[in-house]
Amino acid sequence: MNGKEFEHLKVEMREDGNYAVISINRPDKLNALQTHTLKEIAEALEPMEMNDNIRCVVIRGTKDFTKKPAFSAGADLSSAPLPNMDPKNPRHRTHAMHVKHKYYNLIEAFHKPIIAAVDGFALGGGLELVLVCDIVIATNRSVFGLPEVNRGIFPANGGTQRLVRSLGLMQVKKMMFFGEHYTAKQMNDFGFVAFLVSEEEFEDTVHEKASWLGNAATNSLFVIKKCVQYGSQVPLNVGLQFEQFGYGINSQSKDVSEGITAFFEKRKPVFQGR
């Protein structure tokens, strides 16, 4: 796309569906995340914001796994600390987490829909990466969890704040207090997984759903994402202001005219994402 080479990622464009795929490519580490990995994901997304040919993004683990399938098994605990960081200095530790949060925040703030395509482990920081995506597609063999308490740490990559906005308070505390693994079916029953499929159906389903979003009304998706994401964090009267402004913005989209015209002409709309 922009010719940039990444150390921890593979990036490809699917022109047959107007979407891009970002694959975490650290199979020997079960796609464990370093700060550098998160930085690369944010850097890969940046040029996609202005690329009108990319209307949806899939984040996944590499298809070419060497041990076990994994979206990401969590933070890479063997990774080196930030330059000049004193691990015993609380201020340095706080800053190191601030840097990681910055990249999670940039991923979450991406304007277009992001699908987390999960096949295998999505644990710790990997689950926290799923949390900054919009739609979760998972195989039956996938496993989710926040096992940090078993290492004497806790889900500090946004987990204590974001997961409670997706699941109930008591369920989240149970997950974090006991650090247990949850099956994809359990997470589907919680309402966390949008599409639960077999391993055989996985690739086709990811392509189908990404292509649907890649051919949908991009401005409508943009407004939906922002209104839901940020409007849900403020009082109702403020959230309704988000919705009103969003309506005004979206009304200028050419896709609105196409959608209404197609409705009256009794045909399928052809959205251009503008």
Helix and strand string, N-terminal first?
Answer: EEHEEHEEHEEHHEHEHHHH
Write out the CATH superfamily name of the largest domain.
Answer: 2-enoyl-CoA Hydratase, Chain A, domain 1
Which structural class best describes the helix and strand composition? Answer: alpha/beta
Which of globular, elongated, flat, extended, rod-shaped describes the shape? globular
Strand content: 15-25%
Helix content: 40-55%
Top-tier CATH class of the largest domain: Alpha Beta
Average pLDDT across residues? 94
Distance between the ends: 20 Å
Largest sheet: 6 strands, mixed
Topology-level CATH name of the largest domain: 2-enoyl-CoA Hydratase, Chain A, domain 1
Outline the fold blueprint.
Layout: E1 9-14, E2 19-24, H1 35-45, E3 57-61, E4 70-72, H2 90-108, E5 114-118, E6 121-123, H3 125-131, E7 135-139, E8 143-145, H4 159-162, H5 169-178, E9 181-183, H6 184-189, E10 195-197, H7 199-214, H8 218-231, H9 236-250, H10 254-265
Parallel strand pairs: 2-3, 3-5, 4-6, 5-7, 6-8, 7-10
Antiparallel strand pairs: 1-2, 8-9
Helix pairs in contact: 1-2, 8-9
